Amino acid sequence: MANQDTQWIIIDSRVFDLSSFASLHPGGQAVLLDPEIAGQDATERFFELHRSEVLHRYARLQIGIIEGEEPQIKSHVPGALSAVPYAEPTWLSPGYHSPYYKEVFHLSSILQNLLCENKIVEDALSGKKPICLAVTEAFAGSDVQGLRCKATRTKEGWIVNGTKKWITNAMWAHYFVVACKAESGEIVILVVERGEGVQTKPIRTAYSSSSAGTAFVTFDSVRVPPENQLGAGHPGLNIILANFNHERWVLTAATIGGQRLIFEECLKWATQRKVFGKPLSSQPVIRQKLAAMISRVESCQSWIENITFQMCTMSAKEQARHLAGQMSLLKMHATRASQATAADAVQIFGGRGITQTGMGRFIEHYHRTLLIDAVGGGAEDVLADLGIRQAIRIFSSSSIVI
Ligand code: HEM
């Protein structure tokens, strides 16, 4: 029989002794002493208010398990595929097929080739010495024509002087892939090694206080050997522009993954959260939001699969001609979709969606940080414009009769 002294509860067949914890409980002691909770099976109430990770964090409070019962709630194993519909792309979901991917992917053998070729590549890909891309500057933003970081050619190679801003990973990087302007006015790409003359200062951003390692980087008369020039003999500008397609691809893929995670959180919450005795998902307006989330993310997914296929099939020159515009428009579409999805998710979660701990913490984090993808690798308006200018250029140079 539950009373004021009862300090244990059952959650998912597990028995927890709360005598040492009740007075410290972030949700207050009173709720734990409530006769409907204390000494009872509180599984449903618990999962309405806590993420399952809370149980792992406080596993030390568990004193036993109900005889003959098995815990029913399965926690997500990091790295495992989600069983929630639409939380994974179809090619990772049981029962679906893909025109693009095969069952087996020999990533390890591809890496092994790459690793043998070059010390810097080996260092970076093996994770021994992190590398970062240093293009953006305070003066020029991502306008590569306006870069001011200088590379001066000497008999022994290059000397680099200048600064870079918003460089992700720079705090931990050993190598910096730096876009510089040579005295001739041409862009050269140099791999600068951390050492004398290289300094990194952390920048606090909305998307990361420290974990992204975002930094302001200064190069003060840093010597770079000639073999560290990327694509020597080719215009550095073309190398940067060619890389943009891949950079935007990565950012878009991350944005799509984020949208799926947010959808997963929302579907779970909408089916679990009860309002006026009914699950949130019984409200048509909530189901409309979920439907919109799926439509947005699946449209982005189909477009990126198509572009990925084209990237794997086209030559570098063909990619530059045909895909720069497509990739720009897709990234713009995907980051706008992610903002709409984040806004819907906050409405579904209410106050929890703007709270940094508890049930809505992923929603809050996504909503607060997603603009990194909407800006990094080209802001949305710039990309939209680029995509349309490329289409107009192709159209103007063709012999289509109207
Ligand atoms: C093993 C048992 C429990 C543990 C270890 C525990 C732990 C916690 C923790 C760590 C929080 C902070 C929020 C978070 O990190 O999610 C919290 C909040 C809370 N807990 Fe518990 N709790 C337990 C059981 C319960 C039960 C049975 C109830 C009542 C039904 C309850 C009601 C609440 C409430 C109302 C909050 C505040 C939620 C919010 O701010 O949205 N807790 N609990």
Care to give the gist of this entry?
The chain has 402 residues and is of the alpha+beta class. The chain has helices spanning 30-33, 43-49, 53-57, 107-117, 119-125, 236-272, 284-313, 316-349, 361-369, 371-375, 380-397, and strands spanning 8-11, 14-17, 62-65, 131-134, 150-154, 157-167, 175-182, 187-193, 198-202, 215-224, 229-230, 274-275, 278-279.
Structural description of this entry:
This protein is α+β, with helices and mostly antiparallel strands. The chain has three domains: 8-65, Cytochrome b5-like heme/steroid binding domain (Flavocytochrome B2, Chain A, domain 1); 109-230, Butyryl-CoA Dehydrogenase, subunit A, domain 2, CATH 2.40.110.10; 239-397, Butyryl-CoA Dehydrogenase, subunit A, domain 3, CATH 1.20.140.10. It has eleven helices and 13 strands. The chain has helices spanning 30-33, 43-49, 53-57, 107-117, 119-125, 236-272, 284-313, 316-349, 361-369, 371-375, 380-397; strands at 8-11, 14-17, 62-65, 131-134, 150-154, 157-167, 175-182, 187-193, 198-202, 215-224, 229-230, 274-275, 278-279. Strand 1 (8-11) and strand 2 (14-17) form a beta hairpin. Helix 4 runs antiparallel to helix 5 (119-125), helix 6 (236-272) packs parallel to helix 8 (316-349) and helix 8 (316-349) runs antiparallel to helix 11 (380-397). The mean pLDDT is 90. It binds protoporphyrin IX containing FE.
